Amino acid sequence: MAIKESAASAANGASRHAVDAIIIGAGFSGLYQLHKLRDDLGLNAVVLEKADGVGGTWYWNRYPGARCDSESYYYCYSFNKEIEQEWSWSERYPEHPEIRKYLNFVADKLDLKRDIRLNTEVTSAAFDDATNTWTVRTKDNQTFSAPFLITAVGCLSTANVPKMKGLESFEGQWYHTGLWPHDGVDFKGKRVGQIGTGSTGIQAAPVIAEQAGHLTVFQRTANYSIPARNGPVTAEDVKHTRENYDDIWKLARAGTNGHPFTISTQSALAVSDTERQGIYEKAWERGGLRFRASFSDVLQNADANLTASDFLRSKIKEVVKDPAIAEMLTPYDHGFATKRPPIDSGYFETFNRDNVLLVDIKAEPIVEVTPKGIRTTKQDYELDIIVFATGFDALTGPLVNLNISGSQGYKLKDAWSAGPQTYLGLQSPKFPNLFTITGPGSPSVLCNMPIAIEQHVDWITDCIRDMRAKGLKRIEAEPEPTEKWVAHVNEAADATLLPMASSSWYLGANVPGKPRVFMPYAGGFARYTAICNDVAQNGYRGFALS
After folding, report:
1. How many helices (H) and strands (E) does the chain have?
2. Alpha-carbon distances of 49 from 52, 244, 403, 504, 520, rounded to whole Å
3. What's the CATH architecture for 159-221+342-391?
4. What does the alpha-carbon distance between residue 302 and residue 43 come to, in Å, rounded to a whole number?
5. pLDDT tens digits, residue range 399-433?
6. Disulfide check for 142: which of 138, 178, 238, 358 has CB 3.0–4.6 Å away?
7. Which CATH number fits domain 13-157+394-545: 1.20.1000.10, 3.40.50.2020, 3.50.50.60, 2.60.40.3250?
8. What confidence category does residue 2 fall into, taking pLDDT thresholds of 50, 70 and 90?
């Protein structure tokens, strides 16, 4: 379907387009949402994407070692069996180029690219109460208007570059992992400093260490990590996935985190020390996020969590040869999986290398960046390259940065100044007809993302379908149900050990000045889906429709 452009706007140099729905972002979320609105509902929909290719977060995530941490056979779409039967992954945990290749494959298969505007960066979005219309403006002076606006900008897409004294004086090069140069970085013979040891830093450090002359890792918080045990996907694996397609996705949808495996119903405290050790050893050897499923109460009971934490601490001490370095790498300030649990390919082994140095910046804080490197309270470290593996302004950052104004000009950044206020993670009061895919208040980052995305997109599509069938023009989250949902999100988090990790980005703790609020929904994917379905089946309870 063609996008309508007014003659008057073309004449004055500005480009104006009227459509049925505007989608911001061309990653997993945006591609599927376009398919559903255009191909299922027959709407005139457009995707606006600031990059020059599809991929979303994976378009930008090109740092050394960047991979997904869900296994490839379910880090993909489930909605189209034909796509699944044609596509074959090469690795258990595919690297970023293969994920982009997959998303391009899907976009081409469904002929989505003709309705995606690349190199189109959104600078603002404003709602008109009189016409129930969103107007979106872009950096290249285009204007798009539509009744519905859907953000598909991802949860981890706004790079958190720390404000460091003296960074502008640094004579070498510096990079953020979330904004990595597409032609890569040559580390050969270079002295590299990496700041950050979260999931990204844990993936990047082994690869950088292999290439660089010397790597200095500046660690604020020691972290747990499970070996990925990555390897090739065999023909047998592919056959199994294709033959068990329906069962795999049924199991994933029934679970807590959208993964197609069950969590044990057994408490870690209900077995003998020997049996527990054997279960953990088996999970360690298998590798990956399934380690969390070893027992039912690892994230609910502090004593149960301690058994997993102690096991992983002992593994760090087994792997790292220097006892002093092993101790520095051992986390004591939080329990296992209370922060995002990384998986790795040789992370702890990296610190056995002669060309790798670990610096504990709690013991010797960074004072400033100098022209020659980084100065701590104890000494100067000369560097040629600085890598910031400092993560993202997660969940809220990508949305606030769109400069969204809702009903009567109310700004999203003001609405969320004390923390995100959403109903089901789908909408916020005073922002009619604005849907957020995997927004704060939904399972999002606590889930296997593709399945969380599909659930949201399906719900949004059904909602728009129902509205159009009934001649309704406007839907808006109501304040009281929103307040109750925010309270429920906090209750769900408090029923777990997740809020105990005070330095977690789940709480926004990695961004100075950001409100400390637990943002994702920890009540479980299946439970969340049931709540969303119940809301829809009861006339979209909690939303005002007109």
Report:
1. 17, 23
2. 8, 35, 16, 29, 25
3. 3-Layer(bba) Sandwich (3.50)
4. 50
5. 888 999 999 999 998 988 878 889 999 999 999 99
6. 138
7. 3.50.50.60
8. very low
